[in-house]
Amino acid sequence: MNNTSILIQLVSSPPTWATVIAAAFLLTTLTLSMYLLFEHLSAYKNPEEQKFLIGVILMVPCYSIESFVSLVNPSIGVDCEILRDCYESFAMYCFGRYLVACLGGEERTIQFMERQARLSVKIPLLQHSSDKATINHPFPLNYFFKPWKLGHRFYQIVKFGIVQYMLIKAFTAILAVILEAFGVYCEGEFKVGCGYPYTAVVLNFSQSWALYCLVQFYTVTKDELAHIKPLAKFLTFKSIVFLTWWQGVAIALLCTFGLFKSPIAQGLQFKSSVQDFIICIEMGIASIVHLYVFPAKPYELMGDRFPGSVSVLGDYSADCPLDPDEIRDSERPTKLRLPTPDDDTKSGMTIRESVRDVVIGGGGYVSIPKFANITTLLLFLWACGIS
């Protein structure tokens, strides 16, 4: 029995060239991602935005580590994929919360949408004003859904669109573990008696709806979020989350029908190994893109201009004088960290304090979803002096 297990392990192991290439990209990913992470922790001036931004940044190294482990040991590939899927849903939650934080929080976001709707009603002759009050669905969704009115209801629809994907992703991950234990999951195989095709269909619809809600949210808020260059952030995040998923489904389909006969596929033998190898390369590229799309520089400059407080990124440029009336009219209800007599006069936090705030938060409570990944937990233990 042991000899058989060893033989299976040797046969399923990837070729040396694939392991070396994947390891090189993994090292690149970890180096660049940790550099960007500590850049944000060193310039932790806006916790309301950065704590969620860090969750998005960690998605790339988590993807890379899990894919490399799955590539080296395909026997635990399903377990690694489940962990990757769980963090993916958590990262989507972080990305949505990051965008809302850039708008000033949920209350400010809803007020902005309601104000847009009121302006469209008050000025009906304004060109395209009616389009700003409602969200019209494209074909064929317009036959199934009524136009969404901007305001609290639209915000709740978008929020539910993201949350439902998180819940369904977690449910299908648990279901995959159960089916795999009984040997009927059959990852990458489109057979009637396998669980993989059914979970793939469910995730397809759930993911498509979450993507649609994010696109609609971007359409409404892109002008208000212009200071953070939202298009690049949307494209980068959606490429990692959605394109990697469709890439895996496409590879499974091509292998099932015998259409994927490239040297990489023939060398790696397993459909999941092909996906893992490609993801290792893609995450190396994504880690480079993250340096430019999610930089820490704006937060470093923020501390010089607004010492001792937290401001929403990009409310005012560093070259423009502050207008008290403009500040009052556009004030955003974000949480401020105002200095107290007992506080050190130096603005900002140490890296250890920043990690504590990311994991625990300013309120002193632990949020369970934030422990959905091992990396964050290890950082937390390090910050507390345990490890």
From TrEMBL:
The keyword Transmembrane applies. GO terms for cellular component: membrane. Residues 325-334 have a biased composition (Basic and acidic residues). Keywords: Membrane, Transmembrane, Transmembrane helix. Residues 324-347 are annotated as: Disordered. It is a multi-pass membrane protein. This is Protein LAZ1 isoform X2. It comes from Vigna radiata var. radiata. The lineage of its organism: Eukaryota, Viridiplantae, Streptophyta, Embryophyta, Tracheophyta.
